[in-house]
Design brief:
CATH class: Alpha Beta
Family: Belongs to the SH3BGR family.
Shape: globular
Organism: Strongylocentrotus purpuratus (Purple sea urchin)
CATH architecture: 3-Layer(aba) Sandwich
Radius of gyration: 12 Å
Largest sheet: 4 strands, mixed
Number of domains: 1
Order of helices and strands: EHEHEEHH
GO cellular component, one term: cytoplasm
InterPro entries: Glut_rich_SH3-bd, SH3BGR, Thioredoxin-like_sf
Strand order of the largest sheet: 2-1-3-4
CATH superfamily: Glutaredoxin
Number of strands: 4
Protein name: SH3 domain-binding glutamic acid-rich-like protein
Length: about 90
């Protein structure tokens, strides 16, 4: 798995998580940045992999990686958006 990966969940009852996931996808789509979204609710091994990359056994989506390199969570993504450094955050440059 190479490139930007957004770990998310389609089965979250948490509205904040749903909105965060939608915002990340909207911004990446708007900037025409290719990414893969991985739904951790579909396969347990995807959730395990996300938590291994993040380094937190209790990490919740959304989490963003570039391949096996952890980029950050939603809060870090928002900071990158504010600072207009999404490509730096995603380790694309």
């Amino acid at each position: 798995m190479a490139g930007v990966v957004v770990y998310m969940s389609t089965v979250s009852s948490n509205q904040a998580i749903k909105k965060q996931q939608q915002r990340i996808k909207m911004i990446l789509d708007g900037k025409k940045i290719e990414y893969e979204d991985v739904d951790i609710s579909q396969k347990e091994e995807d959730k395990v992999k996300m938590r291994e990359i993040v380094g937190d056994p209790k990490a919740l989506p959304p989490q963003i990686c570039n391949g096996e390199t952890y980029c950050g969570d939603y809060a870090a993504f928002e900071i990158a958006v504010e600072e207009e450094d999404i490509e730096g955050f995603l380790k694309l440059k």
